[in-house]
Design brief:
alpha/beta; Collagenase (Catalytic Domain); 2 domains; four-stranded mixed beta sheet; 51% helix
């Protein structure tokens, strides 16, 4: 799960006592029909819990992956569809109301006849604007202008609290420019990458032809060559994870001096960010390299690349030939998806992506019970207390660093379910007969909202995910953990189940998010969100020693032939998983307050914590999806997230009697304990 960014329920972060949830133990919360009893849990807990499900489950043709997260996402999607259908079916929608905006946006997406009749026509104004570029200065302005309507440029950015001073807002800029999932897709010469590059060029030629270009083949090759040059100067995924190396504050006025060749001020002015005095550059060498390319690359190539970016971005909102071309490459070739998702599902996705909090407000009113928030508060309090005790007991950390760690822990803030303040979309104009225009105006409203943060106090009420998102995150610059409403459902959070499985599932998710505050990058931020080194040299050396061993544990894992997990790329998530599950188990033990846990469905409470963990990671993926994940995603494949931490956790050995010779057994010297 994507785990990077998080408000607090008052008093939870400094809780010094353990709270006991007041709910009856009704059931185990385990789906026994999914178990494969021919597999020993000591050898493969993931398949012991999910083996029968894996054997009997076919990945839906319109998905590259299926499993727990997807099932909950589908449920949230169906819930949103019902809300949208109700709004779009109301003939008396008041102009400018949420009902009118949501309803007409969905209607504009589902009006296939009109969309197909228009063909490439909606593209023409912007393609004409691109084709009219004659100078590098104009190129910079157009790139800036198009970023306002959602077009990715050679560099991208976001706005958040400043890691150098979290009381202020900062503009962060990072490398971009490539379309394939990772730079290695352009640079490696293994057959699968050569094949993908060929299919990408074919896709470019197809969309250029559909858009009416007569030089489609030549333009496609030029775009591919330019993106390959971008890839050559991009930092790797591992390098771009480094919180210190990617924090480089530069005066806006110095960008043209330090990185000549590109009209940075013209670019910034075009999108309204020129008044911010400083920016944080993620990959300085890329920025310098890109700027130097601008005057040397033919203008025709730049224009072809911009056109390709625009057509690709607009593709989902155009006629069926554009939609099909996009699916053939991004769906089939890159992810292994066999069929396109139904139009209503894509329509829900479009509305949700454009007006997420407007839908979220309706969603939580109908689908999020107040009891869920109350029980989450209890669990978070117990997880915080378990972390506090665990940090206090660490035998490898000196008192000085422990003090700082506990201080950071005491300042954690938690957001549960949904925001206290909802976004205002009243400035968004939606027309029932203008799909692409609607999406571009929605992007403009989002851009204005984001840019509006500059020069203002940090908004600690803001959420970076909508409530209907099946995920969670940690934000280091705000030191907050966030749990949207949609993830607070079974099998992560089962209201009718005994708490052992809940602690193994949502409890471990909570622990994972807290753990990000102490992973290889999160540990570099203090309790205020400031990027500050609060470690003694000895403690940092010991931390590096332990994380190196964790990297090695994951480097040997292979989800498909010739494909190996990158232990460095996934290190932060792996630390989050190891700490999250370890602390969740400890928190569950504390929640019992010395009382015995019942045996349910033949499993002890200790066992059910770990079984709940493995159940939460139920997932089956196509090989293309796995390859893309391993190359570009900081999360390891699900089966390894389920199994790999277990050999490091004493509670797992005790719960299942794991001994030497069992496949999940690790020699004591090879076990990793960090938090």
């Amino acid at each position: 799960m994507d785990i990077r960014r998080i408000l607090i329920v008052a008093g939870l972060a400094c809780a010094a006592s353990v709270v006991t949830a007041q709910q009856p133990a009704l059931k185990s919360g385990l789906d026994l029909t999914a178990f494969d009893k021919s597999v020993r849990p000591q050898d493969d807990l993931f398949r012991f819990v999910n083996g029968t499900w894996l054997k009997n489950t076919e990945i839906p043709a319109d998905r590259p992956v299926t499993g727990t997260f997807i099932h909950l996402t589908d449920k949230a999607e169906a819930d949103l569809y019902a809300l949208i259908e109700e709004l779009s079916g109301n003939p008396n929608r008041k102009p400018g109301s949420v009902a009118q905006q949501v309803g007409d946006l969905y209607v504009s997406f589902t009006n296939e006849a009109r969309i197909n009749r228009l063909g490439a026509e909606p593209l023409k104004p912007t393609l004409t604007r691109i084709d009219g570029i004659t100078t590098p200065a104009e190129l910079a302005r157009v790139i800036g202008e198009l970023s306002i309507v959602g077009l990715p440029g050679p560099v991208g950015g976001f706005i958040d609290a400043d890691a150098g001073d979290p009381t202020k807002v900062a503009l962060y800029l990072g490398q971009s420019g490539t379309t394939l999932p990772d730079r290695d897709y352009y640079l490696l010469n293994e057959p699968q990458f050569v094949e993908i590059r060929g299919k990408y060029v074919a896709y470019l030629e197809k969309i250029f032809t559909l858009a009416g270009r007569t030089d489609a083949a030549e333009a496609a090759k030029a775009v591919m060559a330019l993106e390959t040059d971008f890839a050559k100067i991009q930092w790797t995924q591992v390098e771009s994870r480094d919180a210190v190396k990617t924090y480089n504050k530069v005066a806006m006025a110095k960008l043209p001096v330090d990185m000549p060749g590109f009209d940075w001020i013209g670019w910034a002015t075009a999108q309204g960010i020129d008044k911010t005095p400083e920016v944080v550059i993620g990959q300085p060498s890329f920025f310098k390299g890109f700027a130097a390319m601008v005057p040397t690359v033919p203008m025709a190539t730049w224009k072809a690349w911009l056109a390709a970016q625009y057509i690709t971005t607009a593709g989902p909102y155009l006629s069926q030939p554009f939609v099909d071309a996009r699916f053939e490459f991004f769906g089939k070739a890159l992810s292994g998806q066999q069929e396109q998702r139904q139009r209503w599902k894509r329509g829900v996705q479009a509305v949700n992506g454009s007006m997420g909090e407007a839908l979220g407000q309706l969603y939580v009113a109908k689908h999020f019970p107040a009891t869920a928030k109350a029980r989450m508060e209890v669990m978070i309090a117990n997880l915080i207390e378990a972390y506090r005790q665990s940090i206090g007991e660490l035998d490898w950390m000196t008192p000085a660093t422990k003090k700082e760690a506990l201080e950071k822990l005491s300042k954690f803030k938690a957001k549960i379910g949904y925001p206290n303040q909802w976004r205002d979309y009243s400035s968004l104009t939606i027309a029932a007969d203008d799909l692409l225009g609607n999406m571009e105006r929605a992007a403009q409203v989002e851009h204005k909202y984001q840019v509006g943060k500059l020069g203002r106090p940090v908004d600690h009420q803001e959420w970076l995910m909508s409530p209907q998102t099946v995920n969670a995150y940690y934000n280091p610059v705000k030191n907050e953990i966030v749990f949207p409403a949609a993830i607070l459902q079974a099998p992560f959070f089962d209201f009718g189940a005994d708490d052992a499985v809940n602690y193994g599932a949502i409890g471990a998710v909570i622990g994972h998010e807290i753990g990000h505050g102490f992973d290889d990058q999160g540990r570099r931020f203090d309790g205020t969100g400031a990027l500050r080194d609060w470690w003694t040299p000895a403690d940092e050396a010991e931390f590096q020693k332990r994380t190196k061993l964790l990297v090695e544990q994951f480097n040997i894992l292979s989800p498909a032939p010739g494909l190996m997990v990158n232990g460095e790329l996934t290190l932060g998530e792996n630390i989050g998983d190891l700490g999250g599950l370890s602390i969740a188990y400890k928190a569950w033990k504390l929640s019992l307050k010395g009382n015995a846990s019942p045996v349910l469905d033949g499993f002890t409470g200790d066992q059910r914590v770990f079984l709940g963990w493995a159940q939460a990671w139920r997932l089956k993926a196509r090989e293309q999806y796995l390859r893309q994940q391993v190359m570009a995603d900081p999360h390891a494949p699900a089966e390894f997230r389920a199994n790999a931490p277990l050999g490091n956790i004493a509670g797992f050995y005790e719960a299942f009697g794991v001994k030497a010779g069992d496949k999940l057994f690790r020699e004591p010297a090879q076990r990793v304990k960090i938090w």
